[in-house]
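Task 17 of the worksheet. Students: predict the tertiary structure of the chain below and write it out as structure tokens. Keep your answer in the requested format; marks are given for formatting as well as content.
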Amino acid sequence: MPDMKNLISRLVKKAPVILDGAWGTELRAIGLQPGECPDLWNISHPERVKLIASNYVAAGSKIILTNTFRANRLSLRSYGLEDKLKDINRMGVLISRKAASKHALVFGSIGPCGNLFMNNHINTNLLLDVYTEQADVLTEGGIDAILVETMTNLMEAKIALTAAKKTGLPVVVSFVFNFVKEKLVSIANESPESVAVALTEAGADVIGTNCGAGIENCIFITHKFRSVTKLPIWIKPSAGIPKIIHDELVYPTSIKNFSEYGLALSKLGVAFIGGCCGTTPENIRMLSKILKSRQKNNTS
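Model answer:
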């Protein structure tokens, strides 16, 4: 296992580090049905989950996630799967670890608890217990770091960060920003700057954004982050805002455009770049190719 104390600083020296792409849309492409719990596939269809992870490693990802986005006690309870929490998380780590082999690191994915928190239906002590439970199981499984992702509320994000930091592993915290009255903010109406300041003060090792309004708007978000923090930046956007065409969900950003924006982000100093909803191993392959070409030109 890498020296965790210096892991992020060593990775930043090799920036930009290529992340993986979407998991949810890839799982749906190979058979996940509406209403199914994607995380349960770690137990029921481990070979299919491993295929996704392996495809990203083959495409050039140097960090891949675990298929554990919803594998906290509260989210699993909504599927009637609370009793499978440990098995789902442990298998998620094992699958990604096997796929990564010696070619990539594995970051444990921890997603939000959802509207339960937003509606004040649970207390903060319970939320801390929930996040601590998942973070501990992922850590025991052998992850290299933790990604707290798709956050929409600073209070919840800071609670998840507190829980994750107790493991001793590096922690990335990634927010979702969308347009509200022509402003890019979180669902809780928090700006990129306020999020960056709060997460920096709370002890995050890396801050970032994922999903949201698409990669083109990550240029703006990156500038806002960098104006208030020196922390490394993690960018993992969707392939645009999807539309339903002929009963299919279509993401508008082409692989070529996605890669070109990825190059622009790397020139702004973004340390970690990958994709979220609607991106595929092909996105990562082209992104990896264009960023390696830039690095080669810079050293020649």
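Marker's comment: The chain has one domain: 4-299. The longest strand covers residues 145-151.
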